[in-house]
Amino acid sequence: MNDQLKDTRIVFMGTPEFAVASLDALVKAGARIVGVVTAPDKPAGRGMKMTESAVKKYAVEHGLHLLQPEKLKDPAFLEALRALRVDLQIVVAFRMLPEVVWNMPPMGTVNLHGSLLPQYRGAAPINWAVINGERETGVTTFKLQHAIDTGNILLQDSFAIGEDDTAGDVHDYMKEVGAKLLVKTVEGLVAGTIVEKPQSSSESGVESSGSSLKHAPKIFTETCKIDWHKPAFDIHNLIRGLSPFPGAYTYLQDKVLKIYRSKKEIAPPAIPEGTADTNGKTYLKFACADGYIHVLDLQLEGKKRMTIEEFLRGYRF
């Protein structure tokens, strides 16, 4: 790590565990983190106990200066941010920044996004890439600007998605790939070796305004309901793409059944679509348009998550 980077004053903004991998990689690389901005503590769990974000826990453990603003336009927060004399800001899995914040540092604000931009702009890029059956995804570092996820691309890295990988599997791999790319990006920016590329002429070769762009909007409850009239391939991908959270669901004897892992069986179904079939011991499957979806990992309303074998040992149809 060169002295030029050690002299670069960086503020890191992030909240969940995904962001911790990037912050840790920067710290280990010797980057000068003069401040960490994360979400305020909030009540969670049955006892509504005040819970700290994963990024806050890391910052406290490593003695990093911490800011937890309720509002990003709060004059007291903006004053505290300016006082840090920041050269560069980095955002990983944080909320939307107002221009007064992202435009503050002379070197700008870099965001790490969980897709190969311009594809899958939006809040849930990992989920939608899996739901859509993509065989490849990746990470992108880019400069923030007015429209969400549209800023100039700095660097990208891609990796394969296995046909049975869940969104959780992709998330865990992506956070490590993303952390490495972020360190490489910061090193390149400080050294002046990175050439910013507008998204319309990025490596993905898709025009920003093109109709072939796929989007990654927020996941809502209606997104998660399984439509058994669809083919097994689509349903299997929906289940993978919503696992482990929030979970694709259907109903079993009027109770919500969340399915986290499944396998496909392509064969003309002998029962109506959406109907369950089981031998009571080893399998539970639902008929769909062109076959069956076997449930491997599930959670019935009011019960804990379990494997199909555990479930069938205690459930009576």
Walk me through what this model shows.
- The protein has 317 residues and is α/β, with parallel strands linked by helices.
- The chain is 28% helix and 26% strand.
- It has ten helices and 15 strands.
- The strands form three sheets. It has a seven-stranded mixed sheet, sandwiched between helices. Strands 10, 11, 12, 13, 14 and 15 form a six-stranded antiparallel sheet that branches. It has a two-stranded antiparallel sheet with strand order 3-4.
- Strand 1 (9-14), helix 2 (17-28) and strand 2 form a beta-alpha-beta unit.
- 36% of the residues are buried.
What are the main properties of this structure?
317 residues; alpha/beta; Methionyl-tRNA Fmet Formyltransferase, Chain A, domain 2; six-stranded antiparallel sheet; 15 strands; 28% helix
Percentage of β-strand residues: 25-35%
Q: What is the SS-derived class?
A: alpha/beta
Q: How many separate structural domains?
A: 2
The strand line-up of the biggest sheet is 5-2-1-6-7-8-9
Reading off the top of the CATH hierarchy, the class of the largest domain is best stated as Alpha Beta
What is the makeup of the main sheet? 7 strands, mixed
Q: Measure the end-to-end span.
A: 63 Å
